[in-house]
Specification:
There is one protein chain. With 122 residues, the protein is mainly beta. 0% of the residues lie in helices and 50% in strands. The strands form 2 sheets. Strands 2, 4, 5, 6, 9, 10 and 11 form a 7-stranded mixed beta sheet that branches. The chain has a 4-stranded antiparallel beta sheet with strand order 1-3-8-7, with no helix packed on it.
Length: 122
């Protein structure tokens, strides 16, 4: 079974930083684009950003530009989301998802993880 597992969520103060991890098993992650999505309470899911198999980056969310970066370590089958200058509006459940090779627009990702919770609060 193909699986994606997120980790690294937690509580952080405004202005702080947090790094999320997305670990893959059951398939070669190096052939896939990995995207990060989030869903805040009472709001629809939104795409944040994505890294392609060739390490190209696509920012779906304007508010993430300049604050969030994405990277991948194919040897560890892991993609990271580094978040800085965090704001209360970043509070959400964060999910990673896999697509084939490139970051699609609009995003279409067939494989999903279960999510990890991020809370930004003083």
């Amino acid at each position: 079974q193909l699986q994606l597992v997120e980790s690294g969520g937690g509580l952080v103060q405004p202005g702080g930083s947090l790094r999320l991890s997305c670990a893959a098993s059951g398939f070669p992650m190096d052939n896939y684009a990995i995207g990060w999505f989030r869903q805040a309470p009472g709001k629809e899911r939104e795409a944040v950003l994505c890294i392609s198999s060739s390490r190209g980056t696509t920012y779906y969310l304007d508010s993430a530009k300049g604050r969030f970066t994405i990277s991948r370590d194919n040897a560890k089958s892991t993609v990271y989301l580094q978040m800085g200058s965090l704001k209360p509006e970043d509070t959400a459940d964060y999910y990673c998802a896999a697509d084939f090779y490139t970051c699609s627009d609009p995003p279409t990702f067939p494989y999903w993880g279960q999510g990890t919770q991020v809370t930004v609060s003083s």
